User: Fold these one by one.
Assistant:
Number 1:
Amino acid sequence: MRLRPTPVVMVSSLTQRGAAATLRALEIGAIDFVAKPSSGSENGWPEFRSGIAAKIKMAAKAQVPFEIPEKKRLPLSNESVVHEKIVALGGSTGSVSVLQHIIGSMPADAPGTLVAIHMPAQFTKQFAARLDSICAMTVCEAIDGMPVEDGHAYVAPGDRHLIIKRAKLGYVCRLENGPRINGHVPSVDVLFESVANAAGSQAVGIILSGMGRDGASGLRAMRDAGALTACQNEASCLIYGMPGSAVAAGAVCDEIPLHEIPGYICSNAMRRSTVVEAAP
């Protein structure tokens, strides 16, 4: 990639070692990956063949080389901050380095953030651990019933849909088994639609680089519910499929370059409280 930037699609084994190698490849510029069916399994091969064909065609149209801007972590607030909103991010496997840039740039007191990315179960846990090791926020793979807290990011497990529900003191993560939506578990649409239902106008939703149209209808539901919605702009996308579909669906309030997304989140999801001193 340094000497001759080339669109790359990884073929990965569904193992811990395969996941680590694939995530590293995505960090340094691979377009996407396909997971090999398990040995001796005939059921997965038709899906594998169609998946690799689609991703090769997508890779041929990708913006290569793809440059990730320099990460500049936003400072902690020096004032009292009330987090009025939660944040929902969605993307495909081409968003690995994008999410590393966004969450890695957020301060430790950033608003609670939910992430749906198209990855198998063996990959999402390692991806969350990798983010946790490089970010000021605490990042984990979501667990059913886990409360959504400030300073934390929750990655949807690769074999479950992540949704949120309103609780007495905020929101909680819920994990659901379910069919593939737009070909994916987890689905960005499922997450975004749950955020629209639970949080309404008290949310920020952003759709990131990726293939297909998953997330477009969910982001539209968020916008219709009063949430602030945005997408990564075409010039900074490796693959503009998911953002482009959201724009076409009328789901997007703002199109934003990648380097501006962390600041956009913090400025729109936080409200600085006013401190009133008592009279003497």
Number 2:
Amino acid sequence: MKRFHVHVGVKDLDESIRFYSSLFGAEPAVRKPDYAKWMIEDPRVNFAISQRRAKFGVNHLGLQVDEADELPALKERFEAADKGSLVDELGVSCCYARSDKHWVTDPQGIAWEGWHNLGAVEVVGEGTDEAQTQARSGCCSPATTAAATPQAARSGCCSPAATAAAMPQPARSGCCT
């Protein structure tokens, strides 16, 4: 089964948590100093907000699969939708979770993430060395992104270097699962 994902950059995390908790009728399932996430069942939505960048609003969209064996079919759909630009990230730590991911960009430049969650982590970029984590300042992409696209990496973008470089600036200004 799949769950729709929306990630929004917010100016005031506490104010936004109050708003979305009232809107969804539930407190966040995950709450960190710079991040909150609701796992809504009706409709099935993974809705996340973060305060890691200056740009506010929709950051990226995605589809989360419940089981690892669902990810290859989702990857095929992503490849069919955006031939030639699919980017894979396996075992990446992002937004307090470790995941296997695939990224594509729609014709408007909006990043789409398809992933399977492998488990929680305590730190945004856990599993990377301290210099890489600080260089990314909240970025969820692998170390190669920080090195290859310093501006995108500093802005908090989750998508890998190839996707970040291909996206228009607004779409790559920050994201996380």
Number 3:
Amino acid sequence: MTFPRRAITVVQGVDQLRTGRGPAQIEYVELLDLGEVFRWSPGANLTDDGKNAINASGGFPGAYVRVRRAVAGSQGADLTAAAAQTLLTSQGELRRIPAATLTENIVLTLDPTNAAAPDLIEVSRFDVSAFTVAIVNGGPAAGTLVTLPVSVRANAVAQFNGTDFVLRRSGLML
């Protein structure tokens, strides 16, 4: 049995999906405020983060899941001097530590919540103070992926493999 293809629905914002009813079948929605396409995934039990997953308030159970595209990543907010921070793909794939930011060693934990293979998180360190930056996998195989060394500009890229974040590359920046 085949089903007819349906046109993509254009919606202004996230709140319209949240206050709407979950459909009975797969449908695609483009959100104008995010410039992203979402696919209704029947039965999906995901945490609503407004970027990768959006839950409807009624109707059938499931979630709208962002359709991943092979394009350059989005810039997230600059990182701070907080000793422990959790990074989500919904916060932006490209993260930076500006110059003169660090006041102590920091740990950045890559959280797999709502991540989907092959999502990336890239951290670029522009701070050249005498503190380290440890990048840690927050998935089941938890552990330090890489430690960016003291007093140099460096970056690292981690990719989600469906279960855990794995280190793709790291290095010093000129």
